Hints:
Keywords: Oxidoreductase. By secondary structure, this protein is an alpha+beta fold.
Amino acid sequence: MASLSTLLPNPNLISKHNSTLSSTHPCAYSWKNKTPTSKGRFSVSCSSSSQAYDVVVVGAGVIGLTIARHFLVSSDLSVAVVDKAVPCSGATGAGQGHLWMVNKTPGSATWDLASRSHQLWKTLVQSIEEQGLDPMVELGWKQSGSLLIGRTDAESDVLKGRVKLLCEAGLKAEYLCSSDLIKEEPDLLVDKDSAAAFLPDDCQIDAYRTVAYIEKTNRSFASKGRYTEFYDDPVKCFIRSDSNGEVKAVQTSKNTIYSKKAVIVAAGCWTGSLMQDLFRNWGMDLHVPVMPRKGHLLVVQNFNFLQMNHGLMEADYLNHPTISGSESPDHQKNLSVSMVASIDAAGNLLLGSSREFVGFNTNLDESVVSYIWKRVGEFFPKLKTLPLSDLSASRKVRIGLRPYMPNGKPVIGPVPGLSNVYLAAGHEGSGLLMALGTAEMIVEMVLGYPAKVDSTPFAVQKVLV
Ligand SMILES: Cc1cc2nc3c(=O)[nH]c(=O)nc-3n(C[C@H](O)[C@H](O)[C@H](O)COP(=O)(O)OP(=O)(O)OC[C@H]3O[C@@H](n4cnc5c(N)ncnc54)[C@H](O)[C@@H]3O)c2cc1C
């Protein structure tokens, strides 16, 4: 396990690597030249230029930003982060924030990465506390525990088996029969067939607060010339070295950003199409089958209409059943809606979650929001007395495109044939959970450190020349 000190920013580390960047460079991050963007965030205003960093990260979602953070806090390398927009504009901004193991399966391909990441989040929380800060304020952190809810005999059996497996894997897990469950969640509809798997150590973060915290950590390295952000600046192409064929720079719409050691592409659901675009000019084709899987998250602000003590997920979530038959117009054939509910650190009710394949479309679909509300009402009958239309003043909907991989595993590792380019994408509905483990894995690969988690299942496959 990484020691606490390796996870904290070391203000004494000064880059020996970033020779061309100085704090007076027009693109160096500085609080003086920050300008509000249309989304109310701050970005660095850059004139067209070129400069060099050890590591260039493409994508400022939770995966790209945590990778940048891990390089900054555990090495003396300099890092640039590039995004076509701003952090939280991708899937990250719609994330419900659950760092849950209750829906993960011991022995599956992603289990070790998920558990390592879960552990790293807890270590980060501990380090925040040791600095005298409150992780609830910094990350929106809550350890409220998770309940996976079953409503039939068959689901109860599945939950019993899951609890056994989770306990054998070393987690604290309990099987709750209906009488235990109603004590934990008095407002939940519970009958004799109801049951749950309960993981008291499962926790949640707020994606926005967490991203802001990670950005704050990363920016603490800017004054040393080790960190720069290039936001609202899409990557257009890679520039390859004539001598060894490696990628030596990332060309954005405004800048040429040279990389001395590695380029990490963490562009979420855009990773596949981006890599194809970047490779086309070289007669190469890298097929990364990551697809956008749209999700709506309904947020009801300052919610106190019912009691919800833990985070809840229906057992059927594990199957993502599609809405079919008379309920579903043709265009929603792919839609699945499962009940996932929690209260965040600010007291907002978060209700998910929907899944559908509709390309890169991120338009609000009110019918999906209604499905979510209806589904949650089947578990919390009190909500049925509250029409969705009454909540128009207090509700928001967040929409994001999960980076879906058909084999259910993210892709993390070097691109065959281009040893200094790495991919880190395809975490679908678990990118917040798996971010810290992914970041550690990428840093270990780039720096040649021994791996804490076997990365073989996540290797980038198939380069066609
Ligand atoms: C409704 C919903 C609920 C979810 N709930 C949870 C949860 O409870 N727990 C959990 O662990 N996960 C959850 N997830 C999943 C999680 O949000 C994602 O897995 C995660 O955010 C993916 O992060 P990312 O950094 O890979 O992608 P993104 O956040 O999408 O970031 C990719 C970035 O790449 C940038 N980019 C794209 N193309 C370019 C380019 N050409 N040049 C430069 N930049 C580019 C984009 O602008 C974007 O900022 C949820 C997702 C949704 C939609």
